[in-house]
Amino acid sequence: MRVGFAGLGRMGTHMAANLVAAGHEVTVWNRTLGKAQALADRKGCAIAQTPAELANVSEIVLTMLADDRSSETVHLGADGLFAGQGAHVFVEMGTMSPDHIHALAKACPKGCTVIDAPVSGATQAAADAQLLIMAGCSQGTAAWLKPVFEALGRKTICLGQTGAGAVMKLAVNSLIHGLNQTLAEALTLSEAAGIAPEAAFEVIENSAAAAPMLSYRKPLYLNEAGHDVTFTVALARKDMEVTSALADALGTAMPQGAVTLDTLLRAEDAGFGARDMAAMVNFMRKENE
Predict the structure, then answer these.
(1) Strands 119-120 and 131-135: what pairing?
(2) Buried/exposed code over 260-278 (b: 16+ C-beta within 10 A; e: otherwise)
(3) Cβ density class 171-182: b for 16+ within 10 Å, e for less
(4) CA distances from 157 to 91, 120, 121, 124 (A)
(5) Among 226, 230, 238, which residue's Cα sits nearest to residue 264?
(6) How far apart are CA 86 and CA 285, in angstroms?
(7) Which of 30, 18, 22 is nearest to 54 (CA)?
(8) pTM here?
(9) Nearest to 65, CA basis, from 90, 92, 40
(10) At 29, phi and psi to the nearest 5?
(11) CA-CA distance, 288 to 248, in Å (whole number)?
(12) Residues with Cβ < 8 Å from 185, sequence gap 6 or more?
C-alpha cells in the first residue's frame, strides 16, 4: 500500500520505520526536513517536501502530531494534506480533541475520510509494533486498514464513530497521568519514612497496584536523568487540559483529573516541562523540601 506518514517525533519515527519493514511503499514528511532525511537514509523511504505532496503520492496518510494546532496546520494549510490530490483516507494517530477530529472530518475533500486512531504505548511499544490502536470507525472501515494497523500495533479496537478514538485516548491518558502522579506521591511518602526508592518500587511493582507502565518505565522513575525523555511533563499537561475541557463540555465531574492537571501545571511552572513525566517524582521531592 502507498502510505504517507507525517510527524516524525519520538513515536512517529518508529511507526514509519515499521511501515517500511512491513513492505509498504512509504513516503514521509516532517516539519524539520532533517528528521525525514535521517529516516530515509536508514530505511529507504521517500520524502515529500510538503504535506500536499505527501497526499499526492499516497493512498492513505497517517499523521502523528503533537496537538490540535499542529494537526490543523498540517491538514488545512495552503500546502496542507487536504490541498493534495490522491490520498482518500487520512488517519490522525496523535492525541487530539474530539472537536478537532470532527472539524477535520467536515473539512476533508469530497470523497475522502478522516479517521481518528490514537495509540496507547510508549516509544518502546512503537518501536516493537506493540501499540494499542483506538479507532474511531467501524469494523468494516478498519478492515481495509488492517495491513497498516497490523504493521504498527498488537491490537486495534474499533469504537464505531468518528471522534470516539480521541475520547478514549483522553480517558486512557487521564488514568496514566493520574497513576504517574500517585506513584510519585507513594515513592516520596515511603522515602520520607526511610525506605529506599528501589525497595519501595519493588513492593509497588509486585502489589495489586502494579500496571504495565510501571515496569517499563521503572528505569526512568528510579533514575530520570540517566535516560532519554519519552513523554514530557508539558505533553501530559496538554493531555489533561484537553481532557478537562472535554469533561466540562460533557458535564462530567473529574475531581482527580483536576488535581492531576493542577500538579502538572505547577511542575511546568517550576521548570519541569521539558523533562520526562517520570520527573514528577523529583518534583514531589522538591515540593516536600
Answers:
(1) antiparallel
(2) bbebbeebbeeebbebbbb
(3) ebbbebbbebbe
(4) 15, 11, 14, 20
(5) 238
(6) 53
(7) 30
(8) 0.94
(9) 92
(10) -140, 145
(11) 32
(12) 284
Q: pLDDT digit string (tens) for 62-116?
A: 999 999 999 999 999 999 999 999 999 999 999 999 999 999 999 999 999 999 9
How far is residue 112 CA from its own chain's centroid?
24
Query: Where do the H-state alpha helices sit in the chain?
Result: 12-21, 33-43, 51-56, 68-76, 98-107, 123-127, 139-152, 164-192, 197-205, 212-216, 218-222, 233-250, 255-267, 280-287
C-alpha triplet 258, 262, 263: angle, nearest 5°? 120
Domains, the chain: 2-160 (3.40.50.720), 166-287 (1.10.1040.10)
Q: Are 47 and 28 in contact (CB under 8 A)?
A: yes
Q: Give DSSP secondary structure letters for 214-265.
A: HHHTHHHHH-GGGS--SSBHHHHHHHHHHHHHHHHHHT---HHHHHHHHHHH
C-alpha cell at 28: 514521509
